[in-house]
Amino acid sequence: QLKTREGDLVKRGQVLAVFDSRPQILADLKKSNARLQTLEMEIRLQRLELTRYQQAANQGAASMVLLEEKQYALSLLEGKREEALADRQGLEADLADSELKTPIDGVVLRVHSRVGERPGNDGVLEVGANQEMEALIEVYESDVSRVSIGQAVSLTSENGGFRGVLKGQVER
């Protein structure tokens, strides 16, 4: 989904496009969070059970083997929690990559991919920083003597590269 068009002004961090993988990543993230909540609850219960068996073993009412089994079960649950946390971290990274954000303030110069198309080598779109630009301008040899450094310049596009008039000055 494209959120902008050619010629639109954009601000740093603005979402320009959302990729079709986003809904699935959001669903997977929700599932991952539910799994983590379940594991946290199981760990709390396992710790309570371990405490009870520890007290029973100290009084001779439970065997050390049973206590060790409960400790092992807690270790397994904590390992599963670490795996789930790593999975969630990967999903959060994928979620961040499911949106295309502009790294700069500027203007959308060209859209290379339309909705439903797979982006090619040129990417999805081009954004240019239009606050300060340089233009290479051809001047007839007969007119060069009328151009001087620091002179004010007005630029228009003959081929529709941009609309309106750009103001600047001769730098060299």
SSE order and pairing:
Blueprint lengths: L8 E2 L4 E4 L3 H37 L5 H34 L1 E3 L4 E6 L13 E4 L23 E4 L10 E4 L3
Task: Write structural notes for this entry.
The chain has a 3-stranded antiparallel beta sheet, with no helix packed on it. It has helices at residues 22-58, 64-97; strands at 9-10, 15-18, 99-101, 106-111, 125-128, 152-155, 166-169. The chain is built from 2 helices and 7 strands, in the order ββααβββββ. Helix 1 runs antiparallel to helix 2. The radius of gyration is 31 Å and the shape is rod-shaped. The mean pLDDT is 90. Helix content is 41%, strand content 16%. The chain is of the alpha+beta class.
Physical arrangement of strands within the biggest beta sheet = 1-4-5
Q: Return residue spans where pLDDT drops below 50 for at least 5 consecutive residues.
A: none
Give the topology string: H per helix, E per strand: EEHHEEEEE
How many beta-strand segments? 7
Helix content: 40-55%
Strand content: 15-25%
- C-alpha Rg (nearest Å): 31 Å
**Spatial gap, N to C terminus:** 43 Å
Give a quick summary of the entry.
This protein is of the alpha+beta class and 172 residues long. The chain has helices at residues 22-58, 64-97; strands at residues 9-10, 15-18, 99-101, 106-111, 125-128, 152-155, 166-169.
